[in-house]
Amino acid sequence: MQASEHHAALHAAVTRRFFIRQAGAGMATIGSLKLFADPTAAADTFSKHLAALQYLTPSEEFRNVERHKPLPYKLPLEKRREVGLERETWKLEVIADPDSNSRLRKPLTKKKGTALDFPGLMALAEKNKARFLKVMTCNNIGNPLGMGLWEGVPLRDVIWLAQPDRNVRRVFYRGYHNNKPNQIFQSSLPIGRVLEDPPGEQPVILCYQLNGKPLTGQRGGPVRIIVPDAYGFKSIKWIQQIFLTNHYQANDTYAEQNNDIDSKMKTYARFLHCPKKVEAGEPIPVTGVAQAGQSGLTKVQVWLHDAKQSLPRGDRYYTTADWKDAEVLNPGPAWADHLPTKPAPAIPHQIDANGNPVSWPLRNTLTHWAALIPSVPKGKYELRCRTIDQNGVAQPMPRPFQKSGGNAIQMEAVRVG
Question: The domain at 60-257 falls in which architecture?
Answer without folding.
Answer: Alpha-Beta Complex (3.90)
